[in-house]
Amino acid sequence: MGPGCGETCCYKCHKNISQDQRQEIFAQFYxxxxxxxxxxxxxxxxxxxxxxxxxxxxxxxxxxxxTYRYNLIIGNNLKVPACKKFFLDTLAQSEQIxxxxxxKKRGRVAQFLHTKERNIKEL
Length: 123
Ligand SMILES: [Zn+2]
Hints:
The chain is of the alpha+beta class. The protein has helices spanning 13-16, 19-31, 35-45, 58-62, 84-91, 96-122, and strands spanning 46-50, 66-74, 78-82. The chain has a 3-stranded antiparallel sheet. Helix 3 (35-45) crosses helix 6 (96-122). It binds zinc ion. Zinc ion (ZN) is lined by residues 5, 9, 11, 13, 82-83, 86.
């Protein structure tokens, strides 16, 4: 597990989440055996916000930018916001897992919408 952020972090991660709690999150994450479930774990903790205005133009859509908010769950399901460094260091992961997790999550949503649309048309 990495050290996380410093004293100057505006999220005050180390103040909000103790070293013991980090250890617990780390252990939970590592107890997950299947990689897709690790992605689910991460996807649940990262909120992606679309920073560009809604558009119907396909090219614009593919150039979408997201801002991310990171959270960690401590104690009795308490969601605590953290900075990216703290989040990744606690899980001992690189940035790649965030990209993969969100990509997989979006893929499933797209698949779901596609199926739904097709079902409607068939009715
Ligand atoms: Zn921080």
